[in-house]
Amino acid sequence: MTSTRPLHLAAELAPGSGRAEPGPDTAARTVALARLAEAAALDFVTHDDSFARPGLDALAVLARVAPETRSVGLVPTVTTTHTEPFHVQAAVATLDWVSRGRAGWRIEVSPTGAEARLFGRRPAPPTTELWQEAGEVAEVSRKLWDSWEDDAEIRDVVTGRFVDRRKLHHVNFQGATFSVKGPSIVPRPPQGNPVTVVDATRPAARDTAAHHADVVLVRASSAEEAAGLRAELHRAARAHGRDPGRLRVLLSLTVDLDAYEGGPGALAELIAGWHGGGAVDGFHLVPAVPARDLERFTAVTVPRLVERGLFRVAYAGADGDGGAGAPTLRDHLGLARPVSQYATTGARP
Q1: Lowest-pLDDT range, 71-85, 202-216, 316-330?
Q2: Are 71 and 102 in contact (CB under 8 A)?
Q3: Which of 59, 193, 242, 253 reaches 20 to 30 Å from 77, CA-CA?
């Protein structure tokens, strides 16, 4: 029986998963790849990053891509270890503003001693503790994004009032390794909360993913294994009081479309089969050679999925200029814009 669930597609842009040295053409190259993904109406693109290797800051790179694109979602990897949660959330919120509601962030941790020595603040804790900390960063980020109610900005030139202080909220968050008072220095993002993505390939990350992620990336060698991981994540999300129907599970798949059997056409068959059988909600393509493999994926694989009626021809509701009526990343993923938790409770600072 073929699934009628929407198929979600995403792609990685960083060369060699972020391991290559940046070159003078980095910005132009990344913009060109993002535009390829956008022309094929992919849900979002990711850009890997790590303190463990040289390269440009992924968040800054996608901030550069934002004005050069109109609809595709932009999801940089953001490390929550050795960074300040307040500044991290402000940067992600700013990306959501400059992209007009197309931002997400892929949470990552830094588990090695070499990375810890770059900062000199503390030794590297066990990975399990780092993912617990990452979950707290995700939690406080949502609180800070909500700390401005949607109508907190007044911008009254006559009176000189920019904001209604009654609609700003102190979050007063105390975590195991940090505390944040708030409110944020950035108004509430266009999406309310930018989309949170967690790679749950490692078991240590799975509880954080089930508790905090909107999109979870997994790796599996069979449809049965993928379906088992999806069911596991759904059970864990339910245990955290979440609706599993609001969780999107994507298979992260490294592909070399120049060297395995069948090429882009066979990839379309695999995607259709695994998605149709309910194993995953979509696929996150990690190209062996982005410029080559992403072009083949968008030129051959995606059109075959469109022909089958499995994927969109264009972004729903796109107005063509990236303005206020343009779709957000949450729209692409079928996720509702959350209401501010402080507006809902009527809390006042």
Answers
A1: 316-330
A2: yes
A3: 242
